[in-house]
Amino acid sequence: MSRLRAGEWTAVAGAAGLVVTLFLPWFGVEAPTRGALLVVGLGEGSDDGWSSLGWLTLVLTLGAIGCAIWLALANALNRPVAQAVAASVLTASIGTLAFAALALRVLVFQPGPNDLIVLRYGAWLGLLAALILALGGWWAVKDERTDAPESAFTPPEPRPAPPPRLTETHDRP
Q1: Which of 64, 78, 120, 132 could anchor a disulfide with 25, C-beta 3.0 to 4.6 Å?
Q2: Residues 12-32, buried b or exposed e (16+ Cβ, 10 A)?
Q3: 109 near 32, Cβ under 8 Å?
Q4: Tens digit of pLDDT for each residue in 67-80?
């Protein structure tokens, strides 16, 4: 029986997809030729995700992948609940930041003039994998195990009302 829930599986699938897409081509250059456009790489081996995304985007992406792995291991190895909750919160937060950084890098801050740069399939698959990772992190934050017997809440018995206070009336001289 697996201890991983759907959120953890989703985050791990997004992390695995993101690792794979970092080796795929992300950007290319459209060089005009006689009557046609020729799509070439940015340089020798420089159009994959590792070399064309920039160091900040790579740090956020690798951090999100690491958090997703930690999330899966914390739940699979039955670590304390605080560790699993911290891993899910960090996966959701850093995964969202990584997705935003990747989206900005791919759609806005491309490595060269926008007229010449063409997005390749690795960029679109990488964005999809980063989105899946972030959504898996947010899904893991949500605790859907409220129907478990140990999660059932039984309200305590109501306490009886206190007896009415007797007031003494003294005659004052």
Answers
A1: 120
A2: bebbbbbeebbebbbbbbeee
A3: no
A4: 999 999 998 888 88
